[in-house]
UniProtKB/TrEMBL annotation:
Organism: Planktothrix serta PCC 8927
Protein's GO biological process: dTDP biosynthetic process; dTTP biosynthetic process; dUDP biosynthetic process
Lineage: Bacteria, Bacillati, Cyanobacteriota, Cyanophyceae, Oscillatoriophycideae
Gene: tmk
UniProt-recorded name of the protein: Thymidylate kinase
The family this protein is said to belong to: Belongs to the thymidylate kinase family.
Residue ranges annotated for the Thymidylate kinase-like domain, each copy included: 23-214
Root EC class: transferase
E.C. designation(s): 2.7.4.9
Length: 229
């Protein structure tokens, strides 16, 4: 495949020329593993910078919010609406201070989780009002949607077993199985409602097969976007 540089643009009234590619799914689906592989592979295909980031935790403020959100503490459990607002605050900071400037510069961004996680976890998982979450996502993102979302689909039990095997589990991972199953149902509904944007990938395949599938999908997208010939 031939490389093609992305046009760099930015500033008032200029278009965003970069691309936002999001990895989603329940715990232990293999997002981090695949993002690292995709970053190296994509960077070999294009002169445009390919950058990895995550939500929560893509900024300094976000790192603090991530710690507060994921550390387990018994004294004062985080209330569901407070949790929702903390994820939204992380996103607002991430978009304004990190994602938007890079997208204006023509960067390809690989982001571990984005707005669909809030719908799946706080909406389907916690049971908070979906239209409220959509409004909040709109405020935090200012309308910035992913160009493509890759949903790494694994059974909840398989994903949680993988995270347990990895070591200490965080506050969200400690939630009960029924919660994680509702989250999974959320991702399923989102994928059904957004077939153009969200592509499901079988995350139970072996790591190399998952990578091959992602590369195939991304190769087609990069051609469609005019980023490779
Ligand atoms: N396809 C796969 N088959 C088997 N194990 C896998 C696969 N992909 C990843 N793993 C393993 O599962 C664990 C979780 O993977 P990873 O951290 O990439 O998932 P994740 O989606 O980022 O998880 P989390 O959202 O919980 O941080 C790791 O130990 C990783 O090596
Ligand atoms: C963005 C976002 C994330 N979450 C949850 C999902 C996970 O349990 C953690 C993030 O950790 P991981 O290493 O990426 O798995 O936070 C959420 O509940 N709502 C969100 O909007």
């Amino acid at each position: 495949m031939a490389r093609r540089s992305l046009l760099i643009s930015g500033g008032e009234g200029q278009q965003m020329r970069g691309k936002l590619i999001v990895f989603e799914g329940v715990e232990g689906g293999g997002k981090t593993t695949q993002m690292q592989r995709v970053q190296v592979w994509l960077q070999s295909l294009t002169d445009a910078p390919v950058v990895m980031t995550r939500e929560p935790g893509g900024t300094l403020l976000g790192q603090e919010l991530r710690r507060l959100l994921l550390e387990y503490q018994e004294e004062e459990p985080i209330q569901d609406r407070a949790e929702l607002l903390m994820y939204a605050a992380d996103r607002a900071q991430h978009i304004e201070g990190f994602l938007k400037p890079l997208l204006y510069q023509g960067t390809i961004i690989l982001c571990d989780r984005y707005t669909d996680s809030t719908i799946a976890y706080q909406g389907y998982g916690r049971g908070l009002d979906l239209s409220l979450i959509e409004q909040l996502n709109q405020i935090a993102t200012q309308g910035l949607e992913s160009d493509l979302t890759l949903w790494l689909d694994v059974d909840v039990e398989i994903g949680l077993a993988r995270t347990r095997a990895r070591g200490k589990i965080d506050r969200m991972e400690q939630a009960n199985l029924a919660f994680h199953q509702r989250v999974q149902q959320g991702f399923q509904r989102l994928a059904e409602a957004n077939p153009e944007r969200i592509i499901k990938i079988d995350g139970t395949l072996n790591i190399d097969r998952v990578t091959e599938k992602i590369q195939l999908i991304l190769s087609q997208k990069l051609i469609e976007w005019g980023l490779i010939l």
